[in-house]
Design goal:
Blueprint (H helix, E strand, L loop, with lengths): L14 E2 L35 E6 L2 E5 L3 H4 L1 H12 L3 H14 L4 H13 L4 H16 L18 H16 L3 H16 L9
Antiparallel strand pairs: 1-2, 2-3
Helix pairs in contact: 2-3, 3-4, 4-5, 4-6, 5-6, 6-7
C-alpha cells in the first residue's frame, strides 16, 4: 500500500509542536543508525523532526510525513516489487535511491531494515534503519504525550512496524529486556495512556 498523502492545512485539528522530550525507546544508547542528512539545527542544538503530529479527534492523533514521501513513492514501490521478485540486493539499491530523495521516509527505512534483517541476517544494520525511524517519529511527540496513535491509521503504521523491527533486532543482539520495553512503549502509544507517565 502506498503511503498516505501528507496532511495539508485542511487536516482536522492543529499541528502539535515537536519536542525531543517525548517517549524514549531503549535504542538511544550505543545504536548504529543510518546516516542523517544535514539539516538546520533547532534551538538547543537538536535537529527538528520533519514529521509532525495532528489530532484526529479526541485523544487520537496521527503522524504527518514530509511531502517528499509521495514524490518518491514510485521508487519505493519499485523497490518492493524487486524484493518480492527475489532480488534483495536490487531492492536495496532502489530503496536507497528513494532514500536519497527523502531521507526521513519511514516506509523506506522500515523496508531497508526488513531486508537487512530477513535477507542479509544483519541485525546491527537493520537496527540502524529501524532505530532511525523510531527516533524520528518519537521526536514528533511532545513531552509527556498521553494521546493515542491508532495502529490502523496508515500514517502511523510504519512507526509501529519500525518498533517491531527494532525489537526483533534487539532480541537478536541479546537485549531481550530492551526489546520488551520497546514493545511495551508501542502498546502504550497504541492504546493511549492518560494515566501513564510516558516520559523517559
Amino acid at each position: 500500500m502506498a503511503p498516505p498523502p501528507p496532511a495539508g492545512n485542511d487536516e482536522p485539528g492543529s499541528p502539535i509542536k515537536p519536542d525531543r522530550g517525548g517517549p524514549r525507546s531503549p535504542n538511544r544508547r550505543g545504536s548504529r543508525r543510518a546516516p542523517k542528512r544535514r539539516s538546520p539545527q533547532a534551538k538547543g542544538g537538536h535537529s527538528p523532526s520533519s514529521i509532525r503530529l495532528v489530532r484526529i479527534a479526541g485523544d487520537d492523533f496521527e503522524l504527518v510525513h514530509p511531502r517528499q514521501v509521495i514524490e518518491v513513492d514510485l521508487d519505493y514501490q519499485e523497490g518492493l516489487e524487486i524484493w518480492k521478485a527475489g532480488d534483495p540486493e536490487g531492492a536495496r539499491d532502489a530503496l536507497r535511491y528513494a532514500l536519497g530523495a527523502c531521507h526521513d521516509n519511514l516506509w523506506v527505512h522500515v523496508a531497508l531494515g526488513q531486508i537487512a534483517l530477513r535477507d542479509f541476517r544483519d541485525p546491527t544494520l537493520a537496527r540502524g534503519h529501524f532505530g532511525y525511524a523510531v527516533d524520528l517519529a518519537e521526536r514528533a511527540l511532545p513531552r509527556g504525550f498521553t494521546g493515542r496513535l491508532p495502529r490502523e491509521r496508515p500514517s502511523n503504521r510504519p512507526f509501529y512496524e519500525a518498533i517491531a523491527g527494532l525489537a526483533s533486532c534487539l532480541e537478536a543482539l541479546g537485549r531481550a529486556r530492551d526489546a520488551g520495553e520497546l514493545r511495551a512503549l508501542g502498546d502504550r502509544l497504541s492504546r493511549g495512556s492518560r494515566n501513564d507517565d510516558l516520559s523517559r
